């Protein structure tokens, strides 16, 4: 098993390639199950999917989606909530029914967490499992919000965000004090069950962690390194993020 590496001339080529794979999947399997990521990286893929919907009739009417993660302790309507992000960049512009969208809540009470996370996993299973999972990578090596120390078989749960992850999010929240301390994230084990995985990473800031994920040992210190053991994972990089390979 090894990760298939695509080094693209531009981010646009990477975005188009991933969007085209998703479109082909949906055309072959209209009730496909997509695993979705947020953050700056997948925005171009979502723009391309919206274009395919408007210009090429790609329909999401039977598609079902599961987002990787969500911050805890902010309102759903907060501009940085992942619920808001997904509607702004994708769901408001395509024909997916609201009932087919799954994103962890932002204010899950501590007492309900265990059942809530178990139910999220069960929903994925009931829908037949994730066919195609989009991932970004954090500078801590996280996929979803599986920060260093996350074991390979971990499942959906609440997690304490790494200081580096919070610092990277600080500009979007105004300052570090406003960045949530916790999130709910799908686990590494959950992600590894997806049938196909596409990880996108762009820019020099990701070069060092991309190198560790691809070329380093498989280690709980870099959750993305677990992908070395997945059967159908592709990394889509630009020249900057691939510059240390
Ligand atoms: C977001 C997520 C995170 C991000 C990662 C990269 O749903 O799961 O793993 O993909 O933090 O974020 P960006 O793309 O903003 O660099």
The radius of gyration is: 17 Å
Order of strands, widest sheet:
1-10-9-6-2-3-5
Bound molecules: fructose -6-phosphate
Shape: globular
As an assembly, this protein is single chain
Number of helices: 7
Count of individual beta strands: 10
Question: What average pLDDT do the residues reach?
Answer: 98
- Named at the architecture level, the CATH assignment is 3-Layer(aba) Sandwich
* Major sheet summary line: 7 strands, parallel
CATH level 1 class label = Alpha Beta
Distance between the termini: 19 Å
CATH topology: Rossmann fold
Percent range for β-strand residues: 15-25%
Number of domains: 1
Written description of the protein model:
With 245 residues, the protein is of the alpha/beta class. It has a single domain (4-238), classed as Rossmann fold. Helix content is 32%, strand content 16%. It is built from seven helices and ten strands. The chain has helices at residues 11-28, 43-56, 82-89, 113-126, 163-173, 188-192, 207-215; strands spanning 4-7, 33-36, 64-67, 69-71, 101-102, 132-135, 157-160, 182-185, 196-201, 233-237. The strands form two sheets. The chain has a seven-stranded parallel β-sheet with strand order 1-10-9-6-2-3-5, with helices on one face. A three-stranded antiparallel β-sheet has the order 4-8-7. Helix 2 (43-56) links the parallel strand 2 (33-36) and strand 3. The radius of gyration is 17 Å and the shape is globular. The two termini are 19 Å apart. 43% of the residues are buried. The structure holds fructose -6-phosphate. Fructose -6-phosphate binds at residues 37-41, 68-69, 136-138, 142-145.
